[in-house]
Amino acid sequence: MENRSIWSLHGLTGFFIAVALLLGILAYLTAAAIKTQNATAQQSYEVVDPFGIKMFGPDLENEKHIKIYGTPVGGDKLHKWQFVEKK
After folding, report:
1. pTM for this predicted structure
2. CA dist 81 to 10, 26, 36, 47, Å?
3. Residue 66: which residues within 8 A CB-CB, separation 6 or more?
4. What is the per-residue pLDDT across 46-68, written as a single tens digit (0 to 9) for each?
């Protein structure tokens, strides 16, 4: 007697499901990368007080010297960038 189950995926069926899943993940990541690249390309930046930048110091300390014109991309809460609306 053969042991059959509707939840077992063998052969071509499993292969096609795996390929479709991987292609779906690839499409999602590509679309997210293009969206991020387009949003970032619209931003410009300005260095404020360049002589106050220290070569050695605490992590992320020099980020307060950069002013970015545009809106934040993604959900980054770690960095201390100063975002300013475009004029």
Report:
1. 0.58
2. 51, 30, 17, 11
3. 45, 46, 47, 48, 81, 82
4. 888 888 888 887 777 777 888 88
